[in-house]
Write a structure and sequence with these properties.
The complex is a heterodimer of chains A (about 300) and B (about 350). Chain A is an all-alpha fold and about 300 residues long. Chain A has one domain: ABC transporter involved in vitamin B12 uptake, BtuC, CATH 1.10.3470. Chain A contains 12 helices and 2 strands; from the N terminus they run αααβαβαααααααα. A two-stranded antiparallel ribbon of chain A has the order 1-2. Chain A starts with a helix and ends in a 16-residue tail after the last helix. In chain A, about 55% of the residues are buried. In chain B, helix 1 runs antiparallel to helix 13. The chains are: A mainly alpha (about 300), B mainly alpha (about 350).
Chain lengths: ~300, ~350
Amino acid sequence: MSGATAAFVEATVRSATPLALAALGEVVVEAAGVINSGLEGVILAGAFGALVGAGHGGVAGGFAAAIAAGVGVAAVFAVFAVWLRADQIISGTAVTLLAVGLTGTLYRSLYGAAGAALSIPTIGPWRIPGLASIPVVGSGFFNQPAVTYVVYLLAPAIWWWMYRTHAGLALRAVGEAPAAAEAAGVKVGRVRVWAILFGGVAGGLAGATLVLAQAGTFAENMSAGRGFIAIAIVVLGRWRPMGTALAALLFGAASAFQFLLQALGLALPYQLFLSLPYVLTLLALAGVAGRVRAPAALARADLP
Amino acid sequence: MSETRGSSRWVALAVIAVFVGGTFALLAGSGFDVVRAAGALVRGAAGSWYAIGSGTLVRSTPLILTGLAVALAFRAGVFNIGAEGQFLVGAAAGTAVALGLGAAPGWISIPALLAGGALAGAAWAWIAAVLRNRYQVLEVISTIMLNFVAAYLVSYLVRGPMQEPTHVYPQTPTIAAAAQLPRFGSTTRLHLGFAIAVAACAVAWWFVRSTAAGFRLRVVGANPSAAAVAGEIDVQRVTTRAFLVSGALAGLAGAVEVSGVTFALYENISPGYGYTAIAVALLARLDAAGVIATGVLFGALEAGANAMQRDAGVPSVAVSVIEASIILVLVALERARFVRRGESAT
């Protein structure tokens, strides 16, 4: 049974990694008072970028191209949501649709309609000596691809930056009271653009994780709603970096749960397990959304 | 922030020009015959009476109904991105009703299956309404999550309890001929559903414009807090009704598609109608009558795109780029109309 538990922990951490990356980026974006509902498109572009990059420049090229693609899509969102002050929800949805169209078109143009069985370089697990030997949970947490360790470092780093530095204070001021922040000399628009671009880096990394550390290939729409789940995770994590990382772990467990149940051989339809993360998102949001407080200026294009 | 509004218009248009131009340049660069593709697109959409009736107008029907669903919801400030899921459960329920009634005469089975689809769509949207009103869950997230759940539900149904008797194909049996919508003549695929869609738009246009309930819908959408304070309007009741009507229309679209076009339920029955519907609604400036025109426009675009994929090998998903560009330009140019005001955004 401990073997099954260890496998469950491993699957939990593996499924949580891309969600945590995307959600940590979104924490920063939402702290600036912007909701990037185009995050789904950012992740998808990152995944496609990883495929193209890895085909040309190996794993490093894959990660670099994924980040570039994620930032590119985030920049489009920034142009409309910040510069043109269009409604964030609708522009984000359109940005996702744009990414679906662009990645789908490019994928079929570059790799043919069949999509071909692509073999691209991937990264394997990187065992951390000592920590990985902790019974039951050790190998699950500390025998993972390097991107997982990025999450371990990123969550506390963002916390420190948001709550212990001057720049982080300015970021939160922009999200809570943009008019006051502007009056105090903070460039509200500039802060928001940088936050969105940072979200693009994190979302691009999340997409790269799907391709380079997990699937080893790309499929159309492979982000499969993770961008929207990540936005829900931010709510669940109460807009705080550490809480968000923990909430991502919970969603990872929900995904891992489906493997566990399937392994147990229960005669339940597999679609039930596949829809579990989405149902859990709804339940989790219903449980916390009314009781937590979002940044005051979130998604308010009518505020400065 | 101070910037000049005139320049933003050009920025929006420039960004779009880059996308659309870039897509075509990429297609040309990767060896597609762009001229031939454009020709195929035009011929597929409007090259003959058959293309117009059986291609464009058939394709427009679900887009008009889902576009109307989105337009009415957005008018009430309800960001229903869930027309896709509501369409799917509507298609599933419509199929179930049609199969359940078996050989019943058409004047019973057709109204019953359409009502079943509309009810299922409304029920699916009602979940998001409860989540928003009682738990303050942002409907953009909840409706998208419900889209995924609906897709898996259809997948389960066509591979499980509703699968055709030989259990070979992941689809339901074909519905009885009596349950299929009548067509406008023997040489066309255009079915009664198109007339239903146009009629729905006409009724909705009159409703929003001329009734007290339609007025409340517009006021709530324009400014919920003013509606509650100055107008003494029960905002939650209005938004819940907007959800239900919106879901019912999208569900109806699904049932119409089954009864008029596919005659069976299968997994990819919707090529993203619920998402295209957003572009349809926005381009119509959320006007119910305008949805007819924009629905036909996008129907032509998608029918043409199918021909483009068939004849020139250009992926039809390229049309999403055009749709997304239209949405982006419109939200940027019509900023005042599409801005959420005074509501928390969890």
